[in-house]
Amino acid sequence: MSARKLDGIGSLHQHVTVEARQARLVLSPDAVVIHKGGIEFRSETPFPRWVEMTVSLQSPQDDGKVHCTGVVVDCTGSKHSGYHVSMVFTGLSKQAEARLSAMAHATLN
User: Fold this and answer.
1) What is the CATH number assigned to the segment(s) 3-106?
2) Between 80 and 98, where is the model more confident?
3) How confident is the model over 32-46, as a mean pLDDT?
4) H-helix or E-strand containing 75?
């Protein structure tokens, strides 16, 4: 799986919102790593594996939002050091895939 760390300057200017039934997180763009098929982020809140979550990303190029649904596949850490959450996107539309690809490539320009 290839990974690109999103740069706050060239990619996302807005915060990333991650929601599950038990929590809603608003993450700074520099705290998020986008993969080809998922996302990783740090959280003070643990998430159980296989919980479904929704992620909202704001694109600076066309001011469009991308809403993705995914499943937590790993959550490691502790309440003292925080948690590293890995999530895989499920059922991405072609439009969402294209926008995510554009966001990832914007960091290279």
Assistant:
1) 2.40.10.220
2) 80
3) 84
4) strand 65-78
Mention every residue, 6+ apart, whose C-beta is less than 8 A from residue 52. 20, 69, 70, 71, 90
pLDDT at 29: 75
Which pair of structure tokens corresponds to residue 100?
Answer: 């995510």
Greater confidence (100 vs 61) lies with 100
Q: Find the mean pLDDT for residues 64-75.
A: 88
Residues 98, 17: Cα–Cα separation, whole Å = 19
Closest to 32 (Cα-Cα) out of 53, 46, 11: 11
User: Considering only CA atoms, which of 82, 10, 91 is closest in space to residue 40?
Assistant: 82
**Token pair 């990974």 is at which residue?**
3
* CA 30 – CA 15 distance, rounded (Å): 9
Cα distances (Å, whole numbers) of residue 101 to 12, 55, 84, 94, 107 = 13, 15, 23, 10, 10
pLDDT value, residue 5:
42
